[in-house]
Specification:
Elements lengths: L8 E4 L4 H12 L5 E4 L23 E4 L2 E4 L1 H11 L10 H32 L5 H21 L13 H13 L3 H8 L2 H11 L2 H5 L5
Parallel strand pairs: 1-2
Antiparallel strand pairs: 1-3, 3-4
Length: about 210
Amino acid sequence: MAGSVTKPVLYGADYSVYVRIARMALEEKGIDYGLVPLDIFAADGIPAWYLEHHPFGRIPAFEHDGFRLFETSAIARYVDEAFDGPALQPADARGRARMGQIIGMLDAYAYRAMVWDVAVERLEKATPDENLVADGLRRAETVLKVLASLKAEGPWLLGDQLTLADLHAAPIIGYFVKVAEGRELLARFADISDWYGRIAARRSFARTEKVG
């Protein structure tokens, strides 16, 4: 696949955490790609044509040379393996297992708590559900404790190599720290706070930041 002249296409909205994860992988690999805007919360609903790309009507979806994918982790792994550029997965089995563990943990326990129950509740609701926020913060604290315990020595979550685990965590935590409670909680975990400062300074993070 490397060296193909066909530009890959990502379908989704720039506000989406999961679209941003896939975009960061593409940016880190230095791939020229297209982003087809698709708002799953639009008043008109999900367009029928999109269900051919993602039968569950979620974002992102991906296409390259007629090959279609949905599910962010699958897209990110394909992007890493199908294109030239720096490797975004560890070469050893234990490293890949740890990467998968962190990504799975973030999907299962971090995304809902950090993004929806804390950040969206605070930023989007006229009257936030304080019980929901408090519960989200409790679960977010557990996530950060575990992430700190799993983090290897070195600048990135798995050590010296930037991996898909970093790219998965960055947009989730990036949304979480849009609110004061998220920033305050992250600051209590020095290693993760320092890591976030490094990943937030990368070009891939800046280029995928939603404007406005």
